Structures are given as C-alpha cells and as structure tokens.
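Supplementary Note 3. Input sequence used for the single-chain structure prediction.
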Amino acid sequence: MSELQVTGKITKVLEATKGTSKAGKDWIKQSFIVQTTEDFNNIYCFEIFGEEKVEQFNKFNKVNDNVTVKFNVSCNEWGDKYFTNLSAWRVESESKTAEGEPMPMNNDLPF
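The predicted structure, written as discrete structure tokens, is reproduced below.
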C-alpha cells in the first residue's frame, strides 16, 4: 500500500479528549480538521493519540497553517457499528521563512 497523505489548511483544532482504558491506563487524543483545495471530499478529520504527540502537535501547529499530514486508516467495530479513523503519524508545515527556505523541522512530528 502506498503512503497516504493530504495537503491542506488546518481549519479547526478540537478540544483534546481524555480517558482511562479498561486496563486502567490514562490516554489522550487530539482531533484536527484539514481542508484541501479539491472540489469534493476536501475535509479530513485526523486524530493524534498519546500525550507527547498531542503536546508536540499543539506546540507547532495552529489554525490556518498549511500542512501535509501523513496518516494511517483504521476501522473498529462496536455494537454492529463501524468507525473509521484517520490516525496522523506525521504533520509537516508548508510554511517558508522570509528567505524562501523551509522552516526548521520542528513541526515535522515523527509519529
């Protein structure tokens, strides 16, 4: 399978969701919306899972930033219903510095 990625603008960062697993382990996830310039199917809701990844995302990404998101697709069943997730594992800024060079890779999340 080829690598999945979408390039667009962050239009919304949703409030982080926290919880505790059945095993008693705390978890956190962050969802954010990216809109592309395509005419159809141009809105994507991505999730980031884990405290460190959520902190890094929020530190380097804001609404209206242009980004490329690399992600995996997963599907879970619960009570005869199916839920599909777009799990972001890398968010790269499309921003440029004044000299036209790419910004430092601090927005290049390694997950």
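The domain at 4-101 is CATH 2.40.50.140 (OB fold (Dihydrolipoamide Acetyltransferase, E2P)). Residues 96-106 have pLDDT under 50 and may be disordered.
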